[in-house]
Fold this sequence. Notes:
Layout: E1 3-7, H1 11-25, E2 28-32, H2 35-44, E3 50-54, H3 62-73, E4 79-82, E5 93-95, H4 101-111, H5 116-124, E6 127-131, E7 145-150, E8 156-162, H6 170-178, E9 183-187, H7 191-207, H8 213-234, H9 238-257, H10 261-268, H11 275-292, H12 299-312, H13 323-326, H14 332-337, H15 342-360, H16 369-374, H17 395-411, H18 421-431, H19 435-442
Parallel strand pairs: 1-2, 1-3, 3-4, 4-5
Antiparallel strand pairs: 6-9, 7-8
Helix pairs in contact: 1-4, 1-5, 7-8, 7-9, 8-9, 9-11, 9-12, 10-11, 11-12, 11-17
Bound molecules: fe (ii) ion (FE2).
The site of fe (ii) ion (FE2) has 7 residues, from α15.
Amino acid sequence: MSKTVxxxxxxxxxxxxxxxxxxxxxxxxxxxxxxxxxxxxLELDTSIDLIITxxxxxxxxxxxxxxxxxxxxxxxxxxxxxGPKDGTIKCERFLPKNVDIKELIKTVAxxxxxxxxxxxKQSVGDYYPVPISFFSRMNIxxxxxxxxxxxxxxxxxxxxxxxxxxxxxxxLLGEYQKKGIANLYVPSISRLKFTNxxxxxxxxxxxxxxxxxxxxxSTADVAMNLMVDELESVGLTENTAxxxxxxxxxxxxxxxxxxxxxxxxxxxxxxxxSWLYKYCQILTFVSHHxxxxxxxxxxxxxxxxxxxxxxxxxxxxxxxxNPEKLAPIHSKEEFMNASLEKNESNVVLQHALMAADLVRExxxxxxxxxxxxxxxxxxxxxxxxxxxxxxxxxxxxQVSVIAQSFTREIMKINDINTFISTDVIKKLKxxxxxxxxxxxxxxxxxxxx
Length: 449
Ligand SMILES: [Fe+2]
């Protein structure tokens, strides 16, 4: 296995790079945060195949120092530098400061001479897991679908249960769901074909004039999860953008189809859809209500907040994290009390910034959506949780902060009758004492349960 050293001090970015390089290029990664640490590392181990470094870390000219170090040690290890071109550094490739995962993977794959086909195999093995809920709207699978069993030798055994081109046996699928089976598997080689077909079918249902309100909700949940899956594996593509847009439109249509919050909650509380989809759906409803009941509200603001709500906590939707645990953290105190792992802490503190960076690549994003996403916990720079909400943040970000606090309380209940809206509003007035924020809280009092 090849060995890649990543040099940088942004631990979230380094973890993300490491995770993707391991998954797609199959390289072992070592993360270091200075040229000096690399020097010490090379004292013990020179068997590395690639170094990727930021040009500077704080005031240290890291790339320059590494270049000198390699020359001194007469090591011909390829070097990639994230930063502007510098003729004095012998380097395999300079990558832009805002390099995205896709570009990084492509560059490293080229250096290691790994093909796209190798990468698909590398990232997922021979079979690719697909959440079982994705099959619930599928009539005919485009490729064979497998069930994974534990074999006696400790390995896995994959058994074909649904044949490509045949009607999918919904009764059998229902039995698997009842047994609590979380994933079915498709051959990795057919994964792209399968995903594209599923995306097309999902979008078709969401666009259909005859889809029922109930079915729209379950399909939008699939679309949201499918979109995140795609985002994680291939990045932001036309396909993921199309899925996201259809999902956001559907969430807005659902608000029209369930104009009373208690009817929407009856449908969503205790239902099988994912926690984050439900949170998004209810939060969009609450945000629209605030906007509808203000003297400045417009359809354009509602469109904007719908987009923002959909993307703002997307960093928690990766398979490795639990959104239900992380998304409700809204303050320093909650953050301290949450007993988080290091990778969870990093994502919680930076998720607003990460999501803002992601939507800047999205060419159909409403104006300033990235700014509102960055500030959706009241922090101007999108990192951490401030003690109080600054007046400098965007007005829609202030709406989002209040709507999130209210929605979070709703998400704690299993029975609508146990939710006392007036008590929650009283608490919010104490938490957000300024006149401007108090006015936003007041708009919640007209919500009918
Ligand atoms: Fe958030």
